[in-house]
Amino acid sequence: MWLAAPIMTDTPDSATPNAAPNTGSYTYAQAGVSIAAGNALVRAIAPLARSTRRPGADADLGGFGGMFDLKAAGFVDPLLVAANDGVGTKLKLAIEWDRHEGVGIDLVAMCVNDLIVQGAEPLFFLDYYASGKLDAAVAERVVASIAEGCKTAGCALIGGETAEMPGMYADGDYDLAGFCVGAVERTNVLTGREIAAGDVMLGLASSGVHSNGFSLVRRLAADRGWKLDRPALFDQDKLLIDHLMAPTRIYVASLLPLLRERRIKGLAHITGGGLLENIPRVLPKGVHAVVDADAWEQSRLMAFLQAQGRDRAGGDGADVQLRDRHGRDRECRRGRGRDRGAGGGGRNGVHDRADRDWRAWLHGAWVGGYVERARGLDRDAWLRKRASAC
Which terminus of the chain faces fewer neighbouring Cβ atoms within 10 Å, N or C? Predict the structure, then answer.
């Protein structure tokens, strides 16, 4: 709330490099902040935001807050579902290798994929872009990528924040955060409570490493001396850096129609905790999941990462092992990005039929396991038992 205030003066941070000596009134420019550059960026990205408009939002920037009309979007008795996330240390590779076009998609994907697993349709998105010194050209590329992700997910980019904070970040560095809100009709919330013994588990492939695990990936790259600017050992037609920077897959368009048809009982977004931690989050008490790690073909990238991480790094003896079997579910994830419990099926000879049916309904899906009675173990006990097996 603005009422009235004296003219603000800003004192440059003593740690800010090249801070000009005070010759009178202090200015933001002397402190290393360019208001003009920020305003120019807003003008440049406004058309990108407008390109994401959808029923309920015109996606025009410039107000103090973005608005969304749930009624115009066709909802009757909705619940709102909110999620926020970042891109993590994948940004370090984006900055070092000038690969900014995909990280905005990553940012959107990590948020909207958390919404869709609860049955919610993503409605609108806001971003936060922070740097020590604003590079408008880089920021515009990032926001263009965010807008692309929003269009893929069907949500409107209705606002954001650009923060220029001298002394907070190294030259050229920036950080991202995303915030997304979706909605689901009250009667259609996906909780997983209907999952029962005999249901089949299905998976959808990831597009690569997504946006989790890059601290481990970067450690491997440093210890193994990877040449990221050269073709990958497993794919001579594509640079290794481009394999690693592949944007996170957005699953909304694949899943939303099936959710509206009530074909799916539960969904799990397979992120940092892997299969081991994320699947139990959606299972009701009394059942657990049996996942066949050989049911799907491991991607060449994931096989490469697993092979590179299997042995101990030489020299200092640092252990960067990517454990086989159960460990690969947690850390390498074998390229699986989404798991779901679906009605029908079980373990008694129906997997082949379920696999055929679901491949027809959901492109790229495969049956990778089933749900069975927990045999006296509750969900938390089952998780502890599986974790101890690692």
Answer: N
